[in-house]
Structure formats: C-alpha cells, structure tokens
Design goal:
Number of helices: 10
Helix content: over 70%
Distance between the termini: 67 Å
Largest sheet: none
Oligomer: single chain
Strand content: under 5%
Structural class: mainly alpha
Length: 187
C-alpha cells in the first residue's frame, strides 16, 4: 500500500498549470496588444499544450475572466477605522492606485472587451468590498448609503477614468470623489 503522503501533490498539477497560464496571460498582455492574445500563444508561453487551455477554459474570454476574477479577489484590505468617510476614502484611494497600474489596466481592458462577464469579473469583488464597508457602517448604527448607488457614484467614475481615458484617477482624486459623494447624498 502506498503512503498517503506520496499520493498527494502539494498544489497539484492543476494548480501549477493554472498559475503558469495566469502568469503567461499577464506577461503577454504586458508585451502585446490584447487583440493578439490567443489560447495557443498563452499555452506556448505557459509551457503547456493548447488542448489543456481549450479543455479547461474553452475560449480566451473565459480564460481572461478567470484571470481577472483571480486577480481582483481579496486583493485589497477593507479598512475599518470606525468612520465611513475614512474607510471609503482609504479604500477608494487603494482601488484607484490598483487600477492605475499598467499591468492591471491591460488585464482590465482585455477582460472588459470580452463582454459583460469580463466586466463583472473586474468589479465583482470591489462591489463585495464596498458592501462590507457599508454594512459595517450600518452595524455601527450609522446611516449607510445603498451599495448599488455607492458603486455607481464611486466606482463608476473611477473605472471610467481608468478604462476610457489616457490618465487614470489618482488616489487624491478618488478621496475627493468620496468627499463629494458623502456631502451630496441624501439619506
């Protein structure tokens, strides 16, 4: 009978392949236009057979969605200062800094270009983070705004600037966006 410890592969081949493929996507997006990204090119860079990618992801859109979901999940610390304004300002400034990174921006633009699922992959965790900040305010018996309207008015302009303009938002601009939002919202 084989020893159980020899049968388990730490991380397993699947995890290693996924990590290599995700790294290959990031590298290729940093070097080339997103339109040139293909599953065979990613497979070659990752050192795996293209069939592996077709079987696991099926399309470049599904692969980019997986990479974006992985990249944007739990990547920011949700602050808890005891103040809604401080928490939102710190968090949105961190989001602005993150999406201003050229590699992050390349991944976002490529993923968003694949369709609605790609766009959702880029913001889904941000929505959860924002909802957690707002829920914490409600738990403190504060007046928390609606999560969807907060996302529309805080994340919307930030992502618009990042994706559609040549100069992404700065952390200072993001903090001022929070100030404006909190001063003009009605409860």
């Amino acid at each position: 009978m084989a020893d159980a410890s020899t049968q388990v592969r730490p991380g397993g081949r699947s995890a290693k392949v996924r990590a290599a493929v995700h790294r290959a996507v990031a590298e290729l997006l940093a070097e080339e236009e997103a339109e040139t990204l293909t599953l065979p090119a990613v497979a070659a860079r990752a050192g795996v057979h293209p069939t592996t990618l077709y079987r696991r992801w099926g399309s470049i859109a599904q692969l980019l969605t997986d990479v974006a979901t992985s990249r944007f999940s739990d990547d920011l610390v949700v602050p808890d200062s005891g103040s809604l304004a401080d928490d939102l300002q710190r968090w949105l400034a961190d989001v602005a800094t993150d999406v201003a990174d050229p590699d992050t921006l390349a991944l976002m633009r490529a993923t968003i270009a694949t369709g609605p699922a790609g766009g959702c992959a880029c913001v889904e965790d941000r929505h959860r983070q924002l909802a957690a900040i707002l829920q914490r305010e409600a738990d403190r018996a504060g007046t928390a705004p609606d999560a969807q309207s907060a996302a529309d008015l805080l994340l919307g302009p930030l992502y618009y600037r990042a994706v559609f303009t040549p100069e992404p938002a700065s952390a200072d601009w993001a903090r001022s966006l929070v100030e404006t939002y909190l001063s003009t919202r009605t409860t």
